Amino acid sequence: MGLDAPSEEDMYKCVHCGFCLQACPTYLETGLETESPRGRIALMKAVNEGRIGITPSVTRHWDLCIQCRACEVACPSGVPYGKLIESTMSQVNSRREKSWTTKIVSNIILKRIIPHRNRLLLIIKFLRLYQLTGIQKVLRNSGLLNLLSPYLSELEKSAPQVPATILETSGQTIRAIGVKRSRVALLSGCIMPLVNGPEMEAVIRVLTRNGCDVIVTQNQVCCGAINSHMGDLQTTRKLAKRNIDAFLNSDVDAVIVASAGCGIRMKEYGDLLRNDTAYASKAQTLSSLVKDIHEFLAELPIIPPKGHLNYQVTYQDSCHLSHAQRITEPPRMLLRSIPGIKLIEMDNPSKCCGAGGTYTITERDFSLRLLDSKIKDIDKTQASIVATANPGCVIQLQYGIKINCHNRTVKYVTDLLDESYSSESTV
Amino acid sequence: MSKSYTSNIESFKQAIEKLEYKVSYHNLDQFNVLGCIPSAVITPSNIKELSKTLTTANEHKLSVSPRGGGTKLELGNTPDSLDIIIDMSRLNKILNHAPADLTATVESGITILNLQNELAEHGQFLAIDPALPHIATVGGVLATGIAGPMKWQHGSPRDTVIGMKIVSPDGTITKSGGQVVKNVTGYDMSRLHIGGLGTIGIIAEVSFKLTPLPPKQLTILASFNSNRIAAEVALEIFNSNLMPLAITVFDPDSQDRIPDIGMNNPVLAIKAAGRPATIERYVKDSTSIINKFGSSNVKVLDQIDSKPLWEEISNFGWDTLNSEILLCRASVLPSAVPNLIESIEKFEYDQSLIGKKISHPAYGTVLVEWYCGNGPLNNETVSTILNTFSGLIQRLDGSLVIQRCPRKFREEIDVWGKIGSSLEIMRRLKNQYDPNRTINPGRFIGGI
Amino acid sequence: MDKLTSMIADMKLVVGETYVIHTVEDLLVFEYDGSADKALPDAVVLPSNTTEVASIVKIALENEIPIIARGAGTGLSGGAVAKGGGLVLSLTRMNKILEINSKDHMAIVEPGVVNIDLSHSAEKYGLYYAPDPSSQKACTIGGNVAENSGGPHCLAYGVTTNHILGMEVVLSDGSTQWLGSNTREFQGYDLRGIMVGSEGTLGIVTKIAVRLLKKPESVRTLLAVFKHIEQASSAVSGIIAAGIVPAAIEMMDHICISAAEAAVKAGYPQDAGAILLVEVDGLTEEVAEETEEIERICDNYNPIEIRKATSMEDREKLWEGRKGVLGALGRLAPNYYLVDGTIPRTKLMEVLSGISDIAKKSGLPIANLLHAGDGNLHPSVLYDERIPGQTKVALDAGAEILKLCVDSGGVLSGEHGIGLEKQEYMPLMFTQEDMDAMSKLKPAFITMDMLNPGKIFPTGTPHVQISQGPAVARTGAGAYK
For the structural domain made of A173-298, what CATH number should be given? Predict the structure, then answer.
């Protein structure tokens, strides 16, 4: 456990200048220092100094952190806040009595289901059945869910629609179109290939259209982002090692990640396994190979699509792309490269939408407050499409748009690129 | 006059004479303050003498009034009492001028002109342009807080002061601020004395932040059919990208002292400064704004030709010994100036009055000097003017100070107008710093 | 029920349960501001409007508990630290921009409005709020008023006090007053001018009327790199002597340069001894004429390189190294003691060489970052509090620098305020009479010394608070283990 204690050195890099305050969504929402990055670090220090214990009122403030890492961007002293809160949560979770939702999430979903593709597949198939057969409609109309628990009913509504297409991960290679420019492996992810099968296939088409051989590496597993978000670093390490074994065998120029949350998790494998003698250097190697899809396409550089799309688009920065990976310009550049697309910036595009991994389940109220202010910002743009780069954000934004009855769609940037490429051939 | 009072003044005189300070008992009526004649005029030659004079006066429970150039003695209420005039004219040295630092420290009795001349030799100036600069002193200008038209870009006199040495009513010498342009060490005490009419201490030394003299300066003049339109054009300039040194509106017809500029209708004067291409831009942009408002009568004067004009604008209301004029200074929001001017004109028409007006619309200041076409103002007219005018200003959320007023009306009004409950803080301030009411008793707001 | 408990109950009736903070765990995050000083308050309250502030002040008065007003807590002199306990009154919830009057170039804001948010909101009218402290993305206008904050661009446009028209204040008897006005002139003593920079000791500001400026038509930034710091400071003197007052002149020495280089890779030459950043704004013609002249002046002093930028992105790139430098110093040492003295510009070389002597004597490196245009120095003594005794050495070096500044005709603080950090140094500048005269303000504002007591003026005990070191104070290193 000592391994995962927040690093004292990192903690004391914070000189409490307060520059992070205005970057923090929970501080902005409450106006309370207790719900700010600086406040949370002060509490970490106080625990470290033995001034207070890890009491429920202390952990409450850490729990409310959405881990969007916007504070890292604002910090002049380079405090690795993400790392600090992650390891703090790991300490907290190992010693507290969990609420039933947290228990279900961390013990069953995160430990028993997500790491196992078969179990996950079964659940997803059930969900699809539920949504397609009309049971969903019946159940919703009956009000039974609401009766059972308004919370469950809320949550059920925000579950994504499950499509028929499921991305296979059997080590298949999809060949480049035209001149071959690169050979890449694709992280299929845990939930992505199941609930975002068509979108993952779009990613593959965009990559091959840009001259990449794409290998959907066999034996890869969940990246572990959600586990570490919940403070379960042990499971995260197990998953990381399996991924290292899987990807380092595939001899590629880059490992492409289309989900921002997974991208940063994998880019930080090196740090995660820094004390593991067997895996430390391999982890570094994999981390340096990992590229976010937008980052990769922008650097390649992209072959500009020619298919005209007459859309007004606004772009929501995913926290894990803009703050954690500091990638803000590439996705915008890609959007602007599509003929006909008008990119309209919303106010505060890099402010968190409230998704935050499991945050939307564990801190439902707060998650919805953040979503509400995000939807208002989106509304002001009048854009018909909200583009973003992370599945959590897509689901959250879709839900926000649905409950506000807006006539908008949420799409991945890569979906729009794919749409433009595909309409080229018909011209 | 009570016996004790007489003995106080006598023993004060003896004490001062013993110290061999410069003291005079002649022509005392020339040193009157709003009709109150002092019993002695002391002219200290340094800050120590100033301090000792105050200590002695304070001990003898006498009232003191500091005097700079004596150009603005009409400002304020009639003093409750006056025994000693402290003539500051011998504290007139430049203590330090560091051209490369753009700062200077001076004794407060130096005239504005002498200071500006000295600074100009090093290509610098103090960004204030008050009335009668050859007589007015630094201390006097700061104590009254009244400077000229050049305040929009550079702010008011209070924005140029970086430090002060004050002699308290009991003779204590204290300083605040410093000789650097950026300083937050301790309370900004000089703020209390600028515009405080010397009521809580005498300004003895001042440190200023200076401004480089612009390489080139000129004045753009344009005439309009009405003062209102001229003021609107001034606001258009205020809202444009231009930042002139001064924007002033006046009516040459009613201004006997303003030099002939060959324009009769209401005039807008814009003072621009900078390097050649910058100046050209000012002329170009101003002209196009002026044309847009229907005037093609534009004239450009170089610095030398425009000097007398700006001097007279600064002097407005103060270059007269006539104590029977009524001079009002209104401060409102800039956007309220055109309407205010129009309302004043309507009022003048209704009352068959003539009012000379000068306004600095970008700063929200309107100055009016009222007089009757045929002789001095009568009681009734004065009270009508004051009632109407103060009502007008009040509705605009502005403030009104009666800068000059015929003596016989002074007893009935507070020339500083009314302020809210913050007057209580001001009274306590006076009580803190001058519990014996030694300096200028009764002259300031609310009889402070 | 003890006094505190009943007071907390009373305050909850005023502002609601959520906004009274009193558990030890929660109070801990209000024990600091941006400075090194720390002290635990007895309670924290977050009112949402003037009426609530007035009620809270009355409750505090009844219970004879001092009030420490607090903005974002980014101050660098301990102004918001509840020395000796007391009630921290946080104004962060009062963060509404009440009015932007574009015609008259002014705005009325609540004190909790974040500095840069005002400029952002004014932008659509072509206006902005000029004072720009480095913390402007986080600090509040109320805090700026309390400290009379400056910033790089104060050279041409003045500090906070030059931009405040009036304010609403709650005095410590709970009465509410407007000081100053919305208009440029007003009658009576300049009470609003006295409030600005009074560090929360005279009243609690609840509304502020500020002046806004027009956004300049053109801005140009010029970065000049010199081999020696002497050349850079001569260039500064040259610019001022030429009658140019740019919007900003910033300087960094070689320690800052190497730190900044490591952090943001601004691409500064390896052998750079000093860097000048000069920004000029105004009319296009004016900017062109002045930059040309500044470039010519810099050229006289053998610069290694001069870079210019006009576009927003390019300018930001030039500023990047400057803005990131304080944080970047953390790469050179775990702690730094940032001094804030201002000196006459002409004494720059003299003082810098004095600082270098102090560095040698103390054995600690001192990085120099300065608002060179107005003589406001920010020497940062780099040290490691984990090394026994080093904190004291750093502290002593800082004191020597302050003394040097005052001896050179300068002052203790240019923009950070006195607060707790520098109160014991006040006698370097002021006599007892000077300070007595300042203290007389308090009864006039009927503070009864219940507002931010024990600040600004010396207490006679040496300032040791900076030695609070996590490494020193730590008692339970195993807490997480």
Answer: 3.40.50
Same domain, B385 and B302: no
Report the distance separating Cα C134 and Cα C147, nearest Å.
14
Decide: C186 and C103 in contact? Cβ < 8 Å.
no
**Residue B270 and residue B285 in contact, taking contact as beta carbons nearer than 8 Å:** no
Tell me: the pLDDT tens digits for B264-287? Answer: 899 999 999 999 999 999 999 999
Q: Is the dihedral of CA C429, C432, C438, C439 positive or negative?
A: positive
Our CA-based measurement puts residue A196 at a distance from the nearest CA of chain C, in whole angstroms, of 37
**What stretches of C171-289 adopt beta strand conformation (E)?**
176-180, 204-211, 213-214, 218-226, 248-253, 274-282
DSSP line for A165-202: -----SS-EEPPSSS--EEEEE---SSHHHHSHHHHHH
ipTM of the complex: 0.95
Half-sphere exposure of C199 (CA within 13 A, CB side): 34
Q: Are B202 and B166 in contact (CB under 8 A)?
A: yes
List, for residues B87-139, the tens digit of each pLDDT value: 999 999 999 999 989 999 999 999 999 999 999 999 999 999 999 999 999 99
Best to test chain C binding among A3, A9, A14, A15 (most C CBs inside 10 Å): A15
Chain C positions in Cβ-Cβ contact with residue A77 (cut-off 8 Å): 327, 330
Q: How buried is residue C300: exposed, middle or buried, by Cβ count under 10 Å (0-12/13-18/19+)?
A: exposed
CATH code at C218-328: 3.30.70.3450
306-345 in chain B: CB under 8 A from chain C:
329, 331-335
List own/partner pairs for C122-126 with CB under 8 A and 24 or more apart. Answer: C122/C212, C123/C215, C125/C100, C125/C212, C126/C102, C126/C214, C126/C215
| Token pair recorded at residue A372 | 């509400």
Chains B and A are in contact, defined as 3 or more C-beta pairs closer than 8 angstroms: no
* Chain B residues with CB-CB distance to C413 below 8 A: 183-185
Q: Which B positions 92-151 lie with beta carbon below 8 A of chain C?
A: 98-103, 123-124, 151
Alpha helices in C104-206 (DSSP H): 115-122, 141-147, 154-157, 191-195
d(CA A233, CA A230): 8
Q: Please tell me whether residues B23 and B128 are part of one structural domain.
A: no
Give partners of C (≥3 CB pairs < 8 A): A, B
- Is the CATH number of domain A306-426 1.10.1760? no
According to CATH, where is 3.30.43.10 located in chain C? 3-90
Nearest to A37 by CA among A88, A10, A9, A72: A72
Beta sheet of A385-388, edge-to-edge order: A342-343, A312-315, A385-388, A409-412
Cβ of residue A207 closer than 8 Å to a chain C Cβ = no
**CATH classification of C97-214 is 3.30.465.10, yes or no?**
yes
- A 29-68 residues with CB < 8 A to C: 31-34, 36, 38-39, 42-43, 45-55, 57-58
Nearest CA in chain C to B281: C285
Neighbours of B16 (CB within 10 A): 22
Backbone angles phi, psi at C130, to 5 degrees: -70, -45
Mean pLDDT in order along chain C per 10 residues (481 residues): 91 96 95 91 97 97 96 94 95 97 97 97 96 92 97 91 96 94 91 96 98 95 94 92 92 91 78 93 95 96 92 84 79 86 93 96 95 93 89 93 96 95 95 97 92 93 51 36 41
Report the domain count for chain B: 4
- Chain C residues closer than 8 Å to A6 by CB: 480
Say yes or no for a CB contact (<8 Å) between C34 and A57: no
B226 and B284 in a common domain: yes
How far is the C-alpha of B197 from the C-alpha of C417, rounded, in Å? 29
Asked if A310 contacts A340 with a C-beta cutoff of 8 angstroms, the reply is: yes
Put simply, whether C84 touches B (Cβ < 8 Å) is no
